[in-house]
Amino acid sequence: MVRAKVLRGLVLAMGYACVAIGLFHVLLGNASIPGAGSAGATVDSLGRFFGAIFAGYGLAWLRTARQSPIPATAVRWLAGVFLLGAFGRLLSLAVDGWPHWFQVVLTGVELVLPPVFFWLADSEEKAVRGQS
Questions:
Q1: What letter does residue 35 receive in the DSSP assignment?
Q2: Can you tell me the distance from the alpha carbon of 112 to that of 69, in angstroms, rounded to the nearest whole number?
Q3: How does 18-44 read in b/e, with b if 16+ C-beta sit within 10 Å?
Q4: Which residue intervals of 1-120 are DSSP H helices?
Q5: Helix (H) or strand (E) holding 123
Q6: Half-sphere exposure (CA, 13 Å, Cβ side) for 91?
Q7: Could you report the per-residue pLDDT of 39-74, keeping only the tens digit for each?
Q8: Do the Cβ atoms of 131 and 11 come closer than 8 Å?
Q9: Residue 67 phi/psi, 5° resolution?
Q10: Residue 59 near residue 19, CB atoms below 8 Å
């Protein structure tokens, strides 16, 4: 039951955080990206677009959190997308070198959280079935 509560809390936190971060990028454009303040209109447009997509990704987490039990398949897919983002950052690091330090921290978060979600994914479904 504890794992199920942790899962629900993390899924909600992920959803709200992604919506907030996405809207932050939509509203502030390049100013929301450390080190990209003078990247120009093309990068600004791209960042605002991806901010909207990220806000939508957060809404998918929130929709998942509203289901009972939280579906393990949805958690695994959403966590997999997050992990794919981390792999994209690692590819960027390999191709273009080290980004702003904050992006390195985000990469760490993006590598650590998906395995936690994968581990917790079926905890509510098991709790409903009476398993631990």
A1: T
A2: 24
A3: bbebbbebbeebbebbeebeeeeeeeb
A4: 2-28, 41-65, 72-96, 101-120
A5: helix 123-129
A6: 6
A7: 889 999 999 999 999 999 999 999 999 999 999 999
A8: no
A9: -90, 150
A10: yes
CB-CB contact of 31 with 8 (8 Å): no
- DSSP designation for 100: -
CB contact at 8 A, 62 and 13: no
Nearest to 120 by CA among 13, 10, 15: 10
Measured between alpha carbons, how far is 86 from 75 in angstroms, rounded to an integer? Answer: 17
The amino acid at residue 49 is F
What pLDDT score does 40 carry? 87
> What pLDDT was estimated at residue 132?
53
Does position 107 have pLDDT exceeding 90, yes or no? yes
**One-letter amino acid identity for 119?**
W
Task: Report yes or no: 75 and 7 within 8 Å, Cβ to Cβ.
Answer: yes
Tokens describing residue 17: 């955080």
Q: Output the six-digit token pair for 112.
A: 């650590």
Radius of gyration of the chain (CA): 16
The reported pTM is 0.92
